[in-house]
Amino acid sequence: MTQTQTILASVDPAWDQITTEAHEAVKQQPLMGGLIHACILHHTSLEKALSYRIAAKLCSNEMSMVILREIVDQAYGDDPSLVEAARADLVAVYDRDPACHRLLQPILYFKGYQAIQAYRVGHYLWKKGDYDLSYFFQMRISEIFGVDIHPAAQIGRGIMIDHAHSIVIGETAVVGDNVSMLHSVTLGGTGKEEEDRHPKIGDGVLIGAGAKVLGNITIGECSRIAAGSVVLQEIPRCKTVAGVPAKIVGEAGCSQPALSMNQVVSKQS
Question: Quick one: a GO biological-process term for this protein (predicted)?
Fold first, then answer.
């Protein structure tokens, strides 16, 4: 940890809040003490806690927890933007998910948050050219969390994946900042071509449960994709699309649909 990171950890209000919540949780349910101490209270910073959590989740007989912690610690030390993104994702979940009442919850319990943090380490490895190790991360993330994100995919900050079951994001997909998506979303290709073949999702887009966005198409910023839709054509910014195949059915309904999480398609949308 650099001197700057050490200073930040000592005055980090988010981490202070998380540890306060952890102590309170242990008081309320002592049976959770072992888990909460191992995941939160034994650590001095958010990145150390995340390193432990990712390693504990992804370890197997093929790759020990000790080795995985070293890999994640190295990634966080080399690229502080990974931790910055983790903080933005944590705030996104806390702000947008009505089932999230404490900052502690995503770190301990929410597989969408945990999966995206593990993906970020895999993406770091991919950019370094460590392809086999990044594929190992992809494999374990898929096996443990049911979330299959190619390590080459580019994903921004402030991401909230609610429930996070059966998420698929392809190799050349790009996801902007402050995007929200629900379970069973696919950002996929349409054939066997090996070039740029996956969707480009703009900032602030809301993608409903079960939606499929296929091909090298652009979804304009702050748009909404209704649950169960199949999107095959580019969508302008600030629109709502629905159907199979999806068509524009109205405006986005608000300036930041990914933040409001309003998925109701109405005449006013």
Answer: cysteine biosynthetic process from serine
Angle, to 10 degrees, between the axis of helix 111-127 and the axis of helix 81-96? 160
C-alpha pair distances (Å), 256 with each of 59, 205, 223, 262: 38, 8, 8, 10
Could you report the per-residue pLDDT of 61-95, keeping only the tens digit for each?
Answer: 999 999 999 999 999 999 999 999 999 999 999 99
According to DSSP, residue 37 is labeled I
At the topology level, CATH places domain 153-268 in: UDP N-Acetylglucosamine Acyltransferase; domain 1 (2.160.10)
112-146 pLDDT per residue, tens: 999 999 999 999 999 999 999 999 999 999 999 99
The Cα 269–Cα 263 span in angstroms is 10
Q: Under CATH, domain 13-146 is a member of which superfamily?
A: serine acetyltransferase, domain 1 (1.10.3130.10)
Angstrom CA distances, 39 to 29, 50, 192, stand at 15, 8, 42
